[in-house]
Amino acid sequence: MVSAAAQAGVVAACVVLFVPMGLAGWHLSRNKVLFFSGALFVSLAVGVHLSPYLPSLPHLLLAASFHPHPISSSSSSSAASSSCVPLLHRVSWADAGGESGVGRAWAWPPSLASTCGLARLSRDDASLLLNGSWVMVAGDSQARLLVLALLRLLLDPAAAAAAEPELFRRHSDYRATVPARGISVDFVWAPFESNLTRLLHEDLRLAPRTPDVLVLGSGLWHMLHVTDAARYGDALASVVDAAKSLRSPLPVPPPHMFWLGLPLLVNHMLNTDAKKVHMNDTMLQAYDLEVEQRGLLQRDGGPFLLLDVGKLSRGCGQQCTADGMHYDGDVYDAVLHIMLNALVIESQQRI
After folding, report:
1. What DSSP string describes 155-208?
2. Residue 93, SS3?
3. How confident is the model over 12-65, as pLDDT tens digits?
4. Looking at the 3D structure of the chain, how many domains does it have?
């Protein structure tokens, strides 16, 4: 929706533009050069006075790029979009096969893919969807793995492989760009909920614009080092408040926000005794319950759409993890495509 300030600016601009031009046309009809010079001057003046009320060029490009038609596989997807959001995680898993005989492959059931227009995106489709946008992913190692999946989709294999060592520098931030499409990808190391709250309350408020896509996630470090589900829930409440108060200085829609859920933890595979003691099924269920009950998710009136890594990791199974916590790229590829298809659906709803 256009803000009241923008509407007032447009009305004022019309008055400033058309009244003088009409008068100029009446009095200067015999001098076309003088008339068009005056019209040009008035137009430039209107542009200067109206520009503060208009979105920046990158945001205009983003609004144009979030368009479902190039990647939608069904003409009925727009009508079905609202009912399709809860179905995004209904993927099936099967052995990938091939010469190696290892790995798992995921897919949406054909009937669901057809009805909702869900599709695995190509590099060109993903680049078109995210054209001109700023994607920020903040959290722990799970968030880092999602960024890797995104880079593998947007970049050619050699460039993605070259970026991986820099991305996985311990406890560090990372930034990548896709210059041809004007896409920026930021990873922010933020393993605790307080880090996320500070990012939303302080860092992004000082930025000249907010991210167009914002993915946050936490819980593993809290579970290991604090081991208190109630305190985790209290910290999540602060994240929710900060996310709801996040506003762009420009009259543009708020970011598309996603919450990266906790993965299935395979206790006997965890690689330290401390993890085996603190990161068990009981604690995982308690932490997941806090996510459900703290008003974090869109279905409860919160700002975030859940990317359910837990459900996807359970579907892929124990064979998809080497350490009981971090899963193979297939899981995060599924997470990524669920997010991208959700962006298409959300964009249809905002039109």
Report:
1. S-HHHHHHHHHHHTSTT--EEEEEGGGTEEEEEEE--SHHHHHHIIIIIHHHSS
2. strand
3. 555 445 555 555 454 444 444 444 444 444 444 444 444 444 444 344 334 444
4. 2
* 3-state DSSP assignment of residue 258: strand
- 100 and 62 both lie in a single domain: yes
Q: What CATH number did the domain enclosing 232 receive?
A: 3.40.50.1110
**Tens-place pLDDT, residues 78-103:** 444 678 999 999 999 999 875 555 68
- Kindly state the average pLDDT of the residues 295-309: 96
- Tell me: do 192 and 294 sit in the same domain: yes
Tokens found for residue 46: 């209107």
244: Cβ contacts below 8 Å, ≥ 6 apart: 303
Q: Around Cβ 161, how many Cβ atoms within 10 Å? A: 12
17 & 63 share domain: no
46 and 76, same domain (yes or no): no
In a shared domain, residues 119 and 222: yes
Q: Which domain holds residue 10?
A: 4-54
Of 2-6, 188-192, 198-202, 213-217, give the lowest mean pLDDT range.
Answer: 2-6
Q: What is the mean pLDDT of the chain?
A: 82
Tell me how far CA of residue 176 lies from CA of 22, 133, 259, 329, in angstroms: 51, 12, 21, 19
Residues 90 and 142 in one domain: yes
CA dist., res. 274 & res. 229, Å (int):
17
Task: Reduce the DSSP state of residue 299 to 3 states and report it.
Answer: helix
For residue 150, the model assigns a pLDDT of 98
pTM here is 0.79
40 & 119 share domain: no
Indicate if 327 and 241 belong to the same structural domain.
yes
- Burial degree of 78 (CB within 10 A; 0-12, 13-18, 19+): middle
Which residues, other chains included, contact 72 with Cβ-Cβ below 8 Å and sequence gap of 6+? 78, 117, 119, 344
